[in-house]
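Replying to the earlier thread about multi-chain prediction with a worked example.

Input:
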Amino acid sequence: MVTRCGILALAATFGVICFAGVVYSGQPRPTHRNKSGAQRGQVGLDVSQKFAAPGLGLSAPAPTQIRESSLTFSVSPSIRAAGDALKLQGSVAGLITRANITPAHRLRHFHWLGDSRFFRVTGWGGFVEEVERTPVGYIATVRVSPVFTVNGSSATSGDYTIEKYLLSDGQVQFVEGIDPPDASPSDLVTD
Amino acid sequence: MFGRDACARSILVNPSPPILGSTATYSIQAPSGWQISSYSWQYRWDDGACVSSWLPLTSGNPTTATQYITEPWPGTFDVRCTINYVVPPNYTQQQTVVATAVTIAPPNGVRILSGLNTPTSVNNGIWIVFQLQSNGVDCGPYCAGQARELLTNKIFHGKSAPNDTQWTPPAGQSSTVFYAGSGRINDYKTTTHGAVFQSWPSGSNYYTRTQNIRMLFTDACGNQRIYSRGSVNLANQKVDNNN
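Result:
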């Protein structure tokens, strides 16, 4: 993996606030997977470097915890789904929403949002990308993004993660999380 | 003779109805031949959800026949003018109360004054200025309340992004990047460009969304009132790798 720290600039009324971000220098970003159970550990990004002290007086170490306890996870069908696929995705999305699972993989992936000086995560949103029928149940692939604010403004990031869920007998189980190669926290807009 | 019947006149309101956030004139013409000692102007909220006590129509001492006031809140109000007359000794004090109801239409829309078609870069955010409107008429500049937004239908770099879950800024919290003032909403938008933006084709929209806007204020009874300002669809189009 070839990575380097870049500087993201977030202009706010107070001036310009910068923080370090990860950008990728042309080579494909490896896919990190985090299977549920024992395979956690050596996964995810090196977030301690990802948002290192950026300067402009922001030298204090960044907090590293998203307070996830009260956050809801709302899943929707793909906006491109239609017909029977839309019906199936709608059912699956409803079940996953009600399960309201917050995998540790997700918290690690979006670790950069733990800096409460800038960010406030208000929820999680997901879109079903695929539903696969298997002998043990349905496997749903969900693209997950944070719902958050930057300095109080609504914000949207190019960062996302892929989560797979097993739906069987009305139960929802997190299977694995994937860090997609084109997820890009450096792409960010505030409204 | 001092009688109430001779004094009944109506209150003239101009414009009628008043426009939210604008200045309105309330005036009354007393009958000739009567010597006025004073006028007393009051108003109260009276629209079901809130019937307040009577309050002075303006700050200070509203004792003249014509009042120039601003209309910061939507709703239905009662306005009354009490006319006190000069009476000879040994006569009972006489007064006339004239009242009217005024309804000020709530805000229900915005139009964009400036900020469109402006490139944004890492170091150059943009201000979008929304002009508040009520039934197609510009409001202001004296509108009260807190402006709030909620973004939906987001498509960022070709992928759907989740809707906002909360209106921002939170109720009662000020914001320096999204706020109302002088009948307008000022909204600062920023962007940072990463690897996906760099590979995005110039001339294409890289971000579209619907921006829903509302106003929140507290009436004289302490009730929080929410009025939608409608919504606008906005798009960010890539110009080049920096904008």
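Helices of chain B lie at 195-199.

Feel free to reuse this layout for your own posts.
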